[in-house]
Design goal:
Length: about 250
């Protein structure tokens, strides 16, 4: 997969070893990213102030949204680690703009050791995207959030089935898809062309009132696309995505 690297996490894997395996010779590249990370492209109206280093962002309802956010934050300069993400979803991530030349996949050796793998990557990368493989205990999540804050690394957590948002106490930003509508299918024929979604943002500070943005995710070309000239509103939709048709496609 071109320059994308895969690492099998072991008990002895630490941040310095990960840096070496990823091609980093010092922590200087990480320390250079002291400023807030800009959210570029169609997601910008949702988070125009960017994301501060050390923040924890929780994404629920869509792995594609998490991949699009990571791609937007990473740009062409920042290193990204994916823990427990697997290669399949990251192939889709490339269509969403996630480059593989500064991406490292870390595969925990078992379902219970993912917190150790995430902690190691937080020492060596600008952005870490993680999906809990086993039971996500609140104390593990708290420790990882604290470590991310200390290392000035952006931690993007993907909520999975059985792991609710209450398990991310004090998260700085929460994003979730509340409405979905696929286009392209006719009466028993046709192809899925694009998906219209409603994304809600909440969190601390200026996000306390909440924001909402409609996007194509994915658009016709597979990437996230704006709908006309989107402006995020501060009027959150209901939790069931009222106003958007929900359609299950088998």
């Amino acid at each position: 997969m071109e320059a994308m690297q895969a690492i099998r996490a072991t008990d002895g894997l630490d941040g310095h070893k990960l840096m070496s395996m990823a091609g980093l010779t010092s922590a200087a590249e990480l320390e250079a990213a002291n400023a807030d990370l800009d959210v570029a492209g169609p997601l910008h109206p949702l988070l125009p102030e960017g994301v501060a280093p050390g923040s924890t962002v929780v994404v629920g309802g869509s792995v594609a949204l998490a991949l699009a956010l990571v791609a937007s934050l990473a740009g062409v300069e920042r290193w990204v680690a994916g823990v427990g993400c697997g290669p399949v979803g990251l192939v889709a991530g490339r269509e969403l703009g996630l480059g593989w030349d500064r991406l490292v996949l870390v595969e925990p050796p078992d379902r219970e050791s993912w917190p150790t793998a995430v902690a190691a990557t937080l020492d060596a990368f600008d952005i870490v995207m993680m999906r809990p493989l086993g039971r996500a205990r609140e104390r593990d999540i708290r420790r990882l959030m604290t470590r991310a804050r200390e290392r000035a690394t952006v931690l993007v957590g993907v909520e999975t089935a059985g792991h609710c948002g209450a398990g991310w106490p004090g998260a700085d930003v929460r994003l979730r898809v509340t409405g979905r509508h696929w286009e392209g299918l006719g009466e028993g024929h046709g192809y899925l062309r694009r998906r219209r979604v409603v994304v809600e943002a909440s969190g601390r500070g200026r996000l306390a009132q909440g924001r909402r943005l409609e996007l194509w995710l994915p658009g016709t070309g597979g990437a996230v696309e704006s709908i006309t000239s989107p402006v995020a509103t501060t009027s959150p939709v209901s939790s069931d995505g009222t106003g958007m048709e929900e359609r299950a496609v088998s």
